[in-house]
Amino acid sequence: xxxxxxxxxxxxxxxxxxxxxxxxxxxxxxxxxxxxxxxxxxxxxxxxxxxxxxxxxxxxxxxxxxxxxxxxxxxxxxxxxxxxxxxxxxxxxxxxxxxxxxxxxxxxxxxxxxxxxxxxxxxxxxxxxxxxxxxxxxxxxxxxxxxxxxxxxxxxxxxxxxxxxxxxxxxxxxxxxxxxxxxxxxxxxxxxxxxxxxxxxxxxxxxxxxxxxxxxxxxxxxxxxxxxxxxxxxxxxxxxxxxxxxxxxxxxxxxxxxxxxxxxxxxxxxxxxxxxxxxxxxxxxxxxxxxxxxxxxxxxxxxxxxxxxxxxxxxx
Length: 316
Fold this sequence. Notes:
Layout: H1 2-18, E1 21-22, H2 37-45, H3 50-63, H4 65-78, H5 82-95, H6 103-113, E2 121-122, E3 125-126, H7 127-130, H8 145-160, E4 164-165, E5 168-169, H9 175-179, H10 196-210, H11 220-228, H12 230-252, E6 254-255, H13 260-269, H14 272-288, H15 300-307, H16 309-313
Parallel strand pairs: 1-6
Antiparallel strand pairs: 2-3, 4-5
Helix pairs in contact: 3-5, 4-5, 4-12, 5-13, 5-15, 6-11, 8-10, 10-12, 11-12, 12-13, 12-14, 13-15
């Protein structure tokens, strides 16, 4: 019994030592970080304000119990607090585009994309042909949708972005802007304002957890229908947030599950694994120099979510 007790205490000690550092609720910045000019320009063009846009999306959530129930249900599936999903939705519609007044409008928009004629392509070359180039040979589909599409995005950034390759000059723009937004650059859609590339990355996880069919880059209409239909897109929103929480836990050693401002920030900026690795490198260096590790910090978008947290939590 003594040996068994000793081993149990030893295992608990090891588990505690390896536990991620909890990032406490609230903002690290006293004042809201600077809001990008593009967001300000969009808001001014619509002759509105950030507060008015926030109030509009808050009203959508507050007035629709079915939507709130869907958020709670999908959050439970992915093992996250529904406040993370609500925060992502609020941030996107405050700083990106206005929310529609009714959820039904999103369903109607989703149906319209099935009959739309567009492709994922750049300068006459569709994405399916593009990713067959030898530069992408390392990005094996068998590694899963997240790893495969993240790899392809990295190859784009290092081998093609802003470069002339084989006589073609590629724009100095993000992979998603160049190939996956056929209507206009920076385009995102739906209640979660999902990027089509993000949806493709999360396809395997959503298939595994929610049982939805896997998405294919060869069927862009189905991708856009998915990101517009609330019933289909909410699992992708939750999966994206779950990926960020897991990445910061396993890579950077931080538990961000109780700080929706941080998860909202990562939802906004993307690449949670890359950012977690960068933070770990920074903190390894800080520790080597005898400094305290730096906690993850919210951007302007996440700052709003934490600032409004009491009001948002009242919805759930």
